Amino acid sequence: MNQLDSKNDKVCRPHFALQRRHCIAVALTLAISGACTLTAAAEPGAKSGPVLVLGDSLSAEYGLTRGKGWVQLLQQRMNDEKIPRKVVNASISGETTAGGRARLASLLRQHEPGIVILELGGNDALRGLALQSTQQNLEVMIKAAKEAGAQVLLVGMQVPPNYGATYTEQFASMFKKVADAQKLPLVPFLLSGIGDAADAEQWFQSDRIHPNAQAQPQMLANVWPRLKPLLK
User: Fold this and answer.
1) Is the Cβ–Cβ distance between 34 and 71 less than 8 Å?
2) Catalytic residue among 5, 56, 57, 111, which?
3) Structural domain span for residue 191
4) Predicted confidence (pLDDT) per residue in 151-178, tens digit
5) For residue 207, what pLDDT is reported?
6) Looking at the 3D structure of the chain, how many domains does it have?
7) Which strand ranges, in their side-by-side order, compose the sheet holding 115-119?
8) Active site residue 93
9) Is the residue at 226 inside a domain?
10) Which of 56, 91, 196, 210 is catalytic?
11) Is 22 annotated in the active site?
């Protein structure tokens, strides 16, 4: 998500607060279903290399002071818990699943990660790309990461209700569908407690699109419980 998309970028808009009953229902559905998604410890033979984060502006510290984003907070959390792993942030504002798919092979060769966190898909929805294409790109990236010896954590996103109930639910459920099929741990909604909060306005930057610095710890809190078992 970049400024060029700001007019159409509604993934993070605070109008979630106005529609929060619907959003919360979707989030709770995902949270409940996500509980059935695997969160097992590291697979036998998995690499112990760095954690590679492949995402969009939500993970690329868009509009934030360097070091304040949730990915950097993840590195600090791992340091505090004496987990000897490096976090590599390969996120780019505006990135789509197609862009991530094109970049992943070289990133796997360069960094040899033990874990890959995929946080992509929101910009696909903003551009009106077919869900089938987004799903296929995610599946290809997951397969490539696994073949390179990495474990994968999939991070889900949601779109607001004005996209239509059918599309909203299909988009959200796509991440669980992929995670279940690929036997992956899933973060149901990266912005849980932020984009669907009653006081959503206070969690966003002045563009009313991107989460601000005070929202970043909550984003990490959404990721950490699903990531920690993979780090053992």
Assistant:
1) no
2) 57
3) 3-35+48-231
4) 999 999 998 887 888 999 999 999 999 9
5) 86
6) 1
7) 87-89, 51-55, 115-119, 151-155, 186-187
8) no
9) yes
10) 210
11) no
